[in-house]
């Protein structure tokens, strides 16, 4: 079965989910249908990877969504962290490390460019989770093996990093976790981070062994952005088994070597592909 066909199957499965679990799901049928019926612009990067983009009317707003999906077994996935205080745009970090696609990483101090969430690659720790970010940082994404074949996303608080993730090769704390074991996680926070629409970045994986990176554009007339609940709904409609929210806002950037910046980063306040922000880390992939 091709990647495109598998994706369509997962989308149809999401509709089935709606009809069987309406009471438990925040997904509205109209939004699900709009997502599936969208005019997706699909570009095949190779036999095991593709990117997709669409402008969709959902959540009573206009949404611009960009996606990269690839097989974890044939691609090496890595957390890329610049040295202390180092910063560059996501596309430049990924290119300079000789990876072919990727997305921005987790939260950081915008003055010092140091990570404000737990970040470890191999035995080196680059960042610790800042207490001020605990309201949104409730999980980790990492790769259990050095070859980047085995991604993992789990709920995890600051006291559990050295136990839950001890044997993982690399780990990046982020959040909130959006989907776990196929179920959307709900949050009752009244903080604007959760309730207001912003550009969002998410990453997750499905049962077929594909990793999916996605950016939801925001702060434009053409792209309203999403709340955390709406971001979780999109992750669910993508068929993701586990998914976590990464840094958003002006940081949100999705890039491939052949297609360039796929989304519309908001830092230059123009609906183009040039408004990228300097950041300290990314999650990237390249074919083995």
What is shown here, in short?
This protein is an alpha+beta fold and 288 residues long.
Beta-strand content estimate: 25-35%
The unreliable regions are 1-23
Helix-strand pattern: HHEEEEEHEEEEEHEEEHEEHEEEEE
**N- to C-terminal separation?**
22 Å
Sequence of strands across the biggest β-sheet: 1-2-3-15-14-16-12-13
Strands, count: 20
Total of helices? 6
Task: Characterize the largest beta sheet: strand count, sense, and whether it forms a barrel.
Answer: 8 strands, antiparallel
Mean pLDDT: 92
Shape: globular
Task: State the helicity in percent bands.
Answer: 10-25%
What class would the helix/strand composition place it in?
alpha+beta
CA-atom Rg in angstroms: 17 Å
Oligomer: single chain
Task: Describe the model.
The protein is an alpha+beta fold and 288 residues long. The chain has 6 helices and 20 strands. An 8-stranded antiparallel sheet has the order 1-2-3-15-14-16-12-13, with helices on one face.
How are the SSEs placed, and which strands pair?
Elements: H1 3-20, H2 29-37, E1 41-46, E2 49-58, E3 61-71, E4 75-81, E5 88-89, H3 90-96, E6 101-104, E7 119-121, E8 124-127, E9 139-143, E10 151-155, H4 161-164, E11 170-174, E12 177-180, E13 183-184, H5 192-195, E14 200-205, E15 210-216, H6 228-237, E16 242-245, E17 254-256, E18 260-261, E19 278-279, E20 281-287
Antiparallel strand pairs: 1-2, 2-3, 3-15, 4-20, 5-19, 6-17, 6-20, 7-8, 7-11, 9-10, 9-11, 12-13, 12-16, 14-15, 14-16, 17-18
Helix pairs in contact: 1-2
């Amino acid at each position: 079965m091709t990647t495109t066909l598998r994706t369509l199957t997962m989308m149809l499965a999401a509709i089935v989910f709606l009809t069987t679990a309406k009471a438990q799901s925040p997904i509205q049928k109209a939004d699900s249908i709009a997502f599936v019926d969208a005019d997706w612009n699909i570009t095949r990067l190779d036999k095991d990877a593709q990117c997709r983009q669409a402008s969709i009317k959902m959540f009573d707003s206009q949404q611009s969504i960009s996606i990269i999906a690839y097989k974890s077994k044939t691609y090496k996935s890595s957390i890329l962290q610049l040295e202390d205080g180092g910063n560059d745009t996501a596309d430049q970090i990924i290119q300079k490390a000789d990876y072919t696609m990727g997305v921005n990483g987790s939260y950081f101090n915008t003055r010092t460019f140091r990570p404000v969430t737990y970040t470890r690659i191999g035995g080196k720790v680059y960042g610790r989770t800042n207490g001020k970010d605990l309201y949104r940082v409730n999980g980790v994404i990492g790769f259990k093996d050095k070859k980047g074949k085995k991604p993992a996303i789990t709920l995890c608080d600051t006291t559990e990093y050295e136990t839950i993730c001890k044997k993982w090769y690399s780990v990046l704390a982020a959040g909130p976790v959006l989907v776990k074991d196929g179920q959307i996680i709900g949050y009752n926070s009244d903080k604007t981070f959760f309730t207001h629409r912003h550009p969002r970045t998410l990453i997750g994986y499905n049962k077929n062994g594909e990793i999916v990176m996605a950016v939801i554009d925001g702060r434009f007339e053409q792209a309203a952005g999403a709340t955390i609940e709406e971001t979780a709904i999109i992750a669910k409609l993508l068929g993701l088994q586990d998914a976590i929210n990464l840094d958003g806002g002006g940081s949100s950037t999705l890039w491939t070597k052949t297609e360039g910046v796929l989304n519309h980063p908001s830092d230059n306040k123009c609906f183009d592909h040039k408004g990228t922000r300097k950041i300290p880390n990314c999650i990237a992939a390249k074919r083995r």
